[in-house]
Amino acid sequence: MDFDFDVLVIGAGAVGCAAARELTRWKLRVAVAEKNNDLFGGTSARNSAVLHAGFNNKPGTLMAKLCVEGNRGFDELARELDVPYKRTGKLIVGFDEDDRRRLEALLEQGRANGVPGLSMIGKDEIRRLAPNVMGEFAMLSESTAILDPFRYVLALAENALKNGARFLFSHEVTGIERLNGGWEVSFGEKRLTCRWIVNSAGLYADKISDMLGKKGYVIYPCRGEYFILDKRVGELLPMPAYPVPNIRTGGLGIHLTPTMDGNVLIGPSTEYIGERDDYSATAPTMDMLIRDGSRIFPHIRREHYIRNFSGIRPKLAGPDKGGYNDFVIERLDGAVNLVGIESPGLTASMPIAKLVVEMIGEVEDLEKNESFDPVSRRAPVFRELSREEQAKLAEKDPDYGEIICRCENVTRAEILAAIRSPLGARTVTGVKYRCRSTMGRCQGGYCQTRIAEMLMEELSLTPEEVLYSQEGSNMFTGRAIR
Amino acid sequence: MRTVDKKIVVIGAGPAGLAAAIALHERGERDILLLEREKKPGGILRQCIHDGFGLTRFGESLSGPEYAARFIARAKELGIEIVTGATVVGLDADKTVTAVAADGMTAYRAQAVVLAMGCRERTRGALAIPGRRPAGVYTAGVAQAYINLKNIMVGREAVILGSGDIGMIMARRLTLEGAHVKGVYEIQPYPSGLPRNVEQCLNDYGIPLHLSRTVTEIHGRDRLEAVTVSRVDERMKPIPGSEERIECDTLILSVGLITENELTRMAGAQIDPRTSGAVIDEHFQTEVKGIFAAGNVLHVHDLVDFVSLEAEQLAASVTEYLHGGLDECGVEVSGEGVIQLIPQRVSAKRDVTFALRPAKPGRNAKLRVEQDGTVLAEKRIPRALPAEMAQITVKAEKFLSDSPVKVVLSFD
Amino acid sequence: MIRTYTCIMCPIGCEITAEYEGGEVLSVSGNRCAKGENYVRQELTCPMRNIATSVRVSGGELPLASVRLTSPIPLERIPEAVREIHRVELTAPVRGGDVLIKDLLGLGADVIATKDIEKA
After folding, report:
1. B311 with B301, same domain?
2. Which of C43, C54, C68 comes nearest B148 by C-beta?
3. Do both B374 and B285 map to the same domain?
4. B43, B117: one domain
5. Strand C89-91 vs strand C52-58: parallel, antiparallel, or unpaired?
6. Which of B285, B304, B326 marks a domain boundary?
7. Which residue of C has its CA nearest to B45?
8. Domain boundary among A293, A312, A331
9. Sequence ranges of the domains in chain C
10. Chain A contact probe: residue of C51, C56, C85, C89 with most A CBs at under 10 A
11. Among B308, B326, B344, where does a domain finish?
12. Cβ of A286 under 8 Å from any chain B Cβ?
């Protein structure tokens, strides 16, 4: 039978895009089906953006093994895909003897997992590394890094696309039927056939697993709320600083994490919720974040809030089981099932992708794709350049001389590139994730009107058609005066 | 990158920048450059199409664009150089202004710099309103820009949070352009904006004003569906059990203006956390010699007529600075019962006019300036409102010493 | 019916209370001068307002030209006035001060453009 695709990846998050990219190293027709209208719709765009070291995971688990592997391999990956990242290291700070015991156990666990660069340090050393962080002693993890998760996912996707993968947005899987040697997948009225399915559907991986015939998994959505603080606070925090993890709550504690762009994230909180897409911010949690965050970082004030956001962890275990379950990475007949890929999923995304290929390779002979190009580069990012380089760019291209997002120094050229590129932005939020526009202090006060106008012009949209993010998030009702 | 020497660089060609540049020219200064990031000068006035501007300055009730046009015409008449489409990306303490435009990047080496960048709006994020992130939540200024400049309508059923002047102006604007405004909700127990606007923007159109209320949740996944409004107590904290759900598709936020001081910080000038604008002396000079500030970038104004006046006073100081230097201002100024007080330092050797806002509304307020326990100047304000800026002048000869000066507003 | 106004005739801002029944002003109190009384009487019987809105412009740098009236009109005529004004469609260039509608609705006020709009 002639199948439409060899491999259909369900879910265009970090894992799905990494899998798609790895699959295109081989002569396979790959497609990625994503239920949302763009990338960045799920957990991969809503997290702490940390490349974890792997000391937080139980030895012998996939989480531990793949996290350490992912961390180790990231330098090369970031080079190939032009992903901004920084090995800041991380501090887990403690105050009393209980903390010290737990930290020492964490260190042991880390060593058992093969995590490099772990050590216990004292108050003076904390002061030297991060002068504004409070703590009596700490565990220092040198291999921990922060990264730009949006660029990471986009780069994986762009590279997969470049190497022949197809992306199908607004394609929500509504049914899967087993065929001889493959599958028929329904997206509402539309149907596609494929030989393999990779289930990287994140928050909906249990539903896809059910459809694949592997029943019994249940995803427990567990929301984590964050606060984003002003870059002025970012100047005071050079590396992530976390309190000692508390096993009872099943989360990692209220963290302070600097971002690649110089902001600080406080969070995430931990709350099991009913819906899988309820990204609401809640009042009690917001108050708690500020209160607990201020314990280890007393510099936080109301005026520093830029905004909050939340992410939802696709947990395989509920609160009664302590909320902990290892990754499920298993080969089914004709499918690779990836269920419960929560933290350290981002860090482990490339090793997971490699496992996917390995599992498929166990069953069939794969032929190398000689024209595979691992490299994908970004268009010049104005704000990252020196004054001289900025001047040269602006002289060459007047669109680089027009600053649209004042807070983040994003130029017209970059926004046009974001809209015009192969996996281009079609919404205000899509432009945001690709360029950082509207992420600054004024939250789009200056640039949003311009970006909406650029979207209308580039995509020939009427005002009613302009979307903020997902389908249904129409921003306008039409012309004011008709 | 080009380097160009310019005697005076004015950053921002809104009302403050325009008035400053014109006044400088009229005082005999030449080699003035106005840098404006928009494609046209005029600043925020371009989108303020309602009238009420220019009552004191011109004796007429003009729209924002008309007020700006008077200054733009005068600037053109005088041949003042205005470069539009140029964004200033750097300001150094040595007064080098780096701007980027379609023709590339230029470093202007100035002898004096005037900061006139205006202000921005407080955002939903900064308020941390619980709930989801649907489309349909706009700050008032952004909604105003969509409607008045882009001919784009933002919604049909609106709720407005904040009874500041901008919120009330937008209540009227939305209504005139065909939307239904269900109500204006204000967290204080009194309106934040001027009584004239309560009358002519809300009462005229039957739009209810609810005091001591705030929005405590936003509903709707993709597009706004409703908001929850709660009553608040004297500490402005939501009262549990007082929640009311209001169906709407648009939430307009008019919850405060914040002076835009990225460049001020870059130059190393000290920021006053109370105004969030630069600390200035009586010459409108920041801590960095030769860098001056006026208009909304310094403190938020309610009448553009006063912005122009302030910018003209600044121009006098800039001229003095360029021709011999300004008096040191070592006397600290503090306030009681007032907010947004400027200047924060004076020389105590010259006439000085303090500008401020009453911290609380009330009748029969007494505004006075004190030094060494003595009243240097005093005046009565029959109706004191935080929405209305007040001024008080102290004559040079009244100052007693170099001791700190206090500006006090109290009610009998 | 009783209504209170904050007078806008001078900075004092007297709080004026008026009694109003069947289209007639029965009493006015709280004002310090005649201007305040006149203001309130006018407000109660026939409030006058200026309005601003925009009209569409084709071929211009901007899609709308802002407009206002040269003198106030009765508040109750505003919805009608706005409808009438919105019928106007201009072609660039437009000059601030251009009279777009003379004697709007016969109320003695002209509608003028308040912005220059150059050709695109």
Report:
1. yes
2. C54
3. no
4. yes
5. parallel
6. B326
7. C115
8. A312
9. 2-45, 52-113
10. C56
11. B326
12. yes
**Together in a domain, B25 and B83:** yes
The whole-angstrom separation of Cα A147 and Cα A249 is 26
Shortest Cα distance from B331 to chain C (angstroms)? 32
* A107, A232: one domain: yes
Q: B336 with B368, same domain?
A: yes
The verdict on a CB contact (< 8 Å) between A475 and B141 is no
Q: Please state the domain count of chain B.
A: 3
Q: Which residue in the block uniquely carries the two structure tokens 């910018």?
A: B311
Tens digits of pLDDT across chain A (482 residues): 799 999 999 999 999 999 999 999 999 999 999 999 999 999 999 999 999 999 999 999 999 999 999 999 999 999 999 999 999 999 999 988 989 999 999 999 999 999 999 999 999 999 999 988 888 999 999 999 999 999 999 999 999 999 999 999 999 999 999 999 999 999 999 999 999 999 999 999 999 999 999 999 999 999 999 989 888 888 889 999 988 876 544 445 678 999 999 999 998 999 999 999 999 999 888 888 878 777 767 777 777 888 889 999 999 999 888 888 999 999 999 999 999 999 999 999 999 999 999 999 999 999 999 999 999 999 899 999 999 999 999 999 999 999 999 999 999 999 999 999 999 999 999 999 999 988 888 889 999 999 999 999 999 999 999 999 999 999 999 999 98
CATH superfamily membership of C52-113: CPE0013-like (3.10.530.10)
Query: Are A129 and A242 found together in one domain?
Result: yes
Would an 8 Å CB–CB cutoff place B56 in contact with chain C? no
Query: A320 and chain B: CB distance < 8 Å anywhere?
Result: no
Count of structural domains within chain A:
2
* Alpha-carbon gap: C118 to the closest alpha carbon of chain B (Å): 11
Q: Is the ipTM of this complex over 0.85?
A: yes
Q: CATH code at A299?
A: 3.30.9.10
Containing domain of residue B282, as a range?
1-121+257-326
Q: Distance between CA B390 and CA B361 in Å, rounded?
A: 12
Q: Distance between CA A132 and CA A232 in Å, rounded?
A: 13
Test B128 with A391 for CB contact under 8 angstroms: no
Distance CA C41, CA C65 (A): 35
Q: Which of B45, B48, B51 to mutate to test the interface with C (most CBs of C within 10 A)?
A: B51
User: Is the bond leading into A258 cis (omega within 30 degrees of zero)?
Assistant: no
CATH number at residue B363: 2.60.40
Q: For residue C116, how many C-alpha atoms fall within 13 Å in the half-sphere facing its CB?
A: 11
A440 and A291 within one domain: no
Angle between helices A428-435 and A448-459 (to 10 degrees): 110
- The β-bridge relationship of strands B51-53 and B32-35 is unpaired
SS3 of A53, please?
A: coil
> Is A299 an annotated catalytic residue?
no
Domain containing residue A396: 382-465
Compute φ and ψ for A21, nearest 5 degrees: -65, -45
Residue A358 lies in a domain: no
**Nearest by CB: B104 against A401, A446, A473:** A401
Contacts B178 to A, Cβ<8 Å: 480
> Are A288 and A392 contained in the same domain?
no
Contact state of B176 with C78 under an 8 Å Cβ cutoff: yes
Going by C-alpha positions, the residue among B117, B140, B172 that lies closest to residue B255 is: B140
**Which residue is associated with the tokens 């947004």?**
B340
Q: Chain-centre distance of CA B240, in angstroms?
A: 34
Q: Which residues contact B168 (CB under 8 A, 6 or more apart)?
A: B160, B184, B191, B193, B197, B198, B201, B202, B254
The CA distance from A434 to A258, in Å, is 19
Instruction: Pull the structure tokens for residue A48.
Output: 């702490």
Looking at A292, A312, A332, which one is the last position of a domain?
Answer: A312
Q: Could you tell me which residues come within 8 angstroms of residue A302 by beta carbon, excluding any fewer than 6 positions away?
A: none
Question: Do B349 and B369 share a domain, yes or no?
Answer: yes
